[in-house]
Write a structure and sequence with these properties.
Blueprint (H helix, E strand, L loop, with lengths): L5 E6 L6 E6 L5 E5 H5 L7 H23 L6 E13 L2 E14 L5 H14 L1 H5 L4 E8 L2
Parallel strand pairs: 5-6
Antiparallel strand pairs: 1-2, 2-3, 4-5
Helix pairs in contact: 2-3
Amino acid sequence: MPVRRASAQWNGGIKDGKGTMKLGSGAFEGNYSFGTRFEDAPGTNPEELIGAAHAGCFSMALSLFLENAGHKPESIQTSAEVSIESSGEGFAITKIALATEAKVPGIDEKTFQEQANAAKEKCPVSQALAGTEITLKAALVG
């Protein structure tokens, strides 16, 4: 299996410093700072990237679980809200709220919810973030 890479560069102190984060594939490079992380300044932040990774991983896992249960999805749309809060002398990611909507022909609500919850528990990013509270709101659409 491949090893994925990413890197970050930070210059300066915590409040006046600036940095860039970049994916090894070159598909993304973005600026980050104290302001993008804890205020509303333009740019990205680690939590936003974790949210994108988690939403993408969960969507793929849900597709796999649904197909394995005999229900190939037409579409899956997932969002993630990542909460960071003060914790002791630093900060901690305390919660990730996943919300997904899926169009899955021929599936009943009970089976869909079972597969969605299994995907939440088994997706590799959920497993990597097991110390964080992860919630899921899953809905069938269409």
